[in-house]
Amino acid sequence: MEVVKSIKESACYIAFNPQKEEAQGFDKTGGGYPYQLPDGVQIQIASERYRAPEILFHPSLIGLEYAGMHELLVTSVSRCDLDLRRTLYSQIVLAGGSTMFHGFGDRLLNEVRKLAPKDIKIRISAPPERKFSTWIGGSILASLATFKKMWVSKQEYEEYGAGILHRKTL
């Protein structure tokens, strides 16, 4: 698993225009990214470099019937109050390890622009610590006294089932 993670982090990227990448084709040129495995064997990583992370935008590539990240973002914003939407579109912050792919922010911006209202200014920030920002945010949230009231113990869950979640959080 560590080898896969290493390949993901060192070789993969988000293609701004996947169709153009396909047309140019790593496989056709014989080129690729040289990667040395722990046993010393060197492999070439070709179109997998951009095809693997493409599932973030098109989960259907691996048979999943989900919307892409860009579609989920636009849908989420569109379900918020009308007066908040402009602010939300102008303050998109990338968080999590998969946003570290080279080209992720540019591609997300391009895809969101296609779906969002044309008169909206879209701004995406990519803080350098975003790989761990979800954990940092979770840590901060878990340390808040008000959040502790929402915790559900195993015993409570076993006694009341999923209904306890609604009771404690609403």
Automatic annotation (TrEMBL):
SMART domains given in the database record: ACTIN
MF terms (GO), sorted A to Z: ATP binding; hydrolase activity
Transmembrane region(s): none
Domain of life: Eukaryota
PROSITE patterns to which the protein is assigned, alphabetical: ACTINS_2
Assigned keywords, A-Z: ATP-binding, Hydrolase, Nucleotide-binding
Catalytic activity reported: ATP + H2O = ADP + phosphate + H(+)
Pfam families per UniProt: Actin (PF00022)
Family: Belongs to the actin family.
Protein's name in the database: Actin-related protein arp1
Organism per entry: Cystoisospora suis
